[in-house]
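My current task is to audit a protein record that another person submitted. My question to you is simply how this chain folds and whether the tokens agree. This is what I was given:
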Amino acid sequence: MTSPDPKADLHRYLQSARDALLWKLEGLSEYDVRRPFTPTGTNLLGLVKHVATMELGYLGDTFGRPSGEPLPWLEHAGETNGDMWATADESREFVVGLYRRAWAHADATIDALPLETTGRVPWWPAGKDEVTLHHAVVRVIADTQRHAGHADIIRELMDGAVGMNEGNDSMMPGGPAWWEDYRARLERAAREADENV
């Protein structure tokens, strides 16, 4: 058994979530990575832009380590919810590149500071804005995993692609006929439960 390494554990789960989220963009057109899939506009490239922005804030600015990345969507005159979608002028390469630079900046913060280091989240209310690096990393992991889950659902609805990455779909074995039967059984169970109320 090896000695515990909390930073390595946190980084492994953070990177796994990052990779899963980016994989959801692979093989899609510019339209498909941007198109709103929910009534609130959730879209794949917007999710990536949001988590990049979040990492730069929580694992940079919060600990006095600004990245220097221009984030005009956060400025006072920026568009409301501007971190949740990419404009036609913000290419996929721009958003993905921003995210990869955010990773590098966040990873440098994690490497440079003890997990007990205290920072202040600039957008939290004064007096309730203090956070440890450990807490901030866990928060970023949770938020990234949450948005990777959103991306999972969007991608499955879009073209049926599921899983964490190309080599690991994390799904029970079974072909299209098995899944169709499985879904039909779930539908029947839902209708029966509703009738029993």
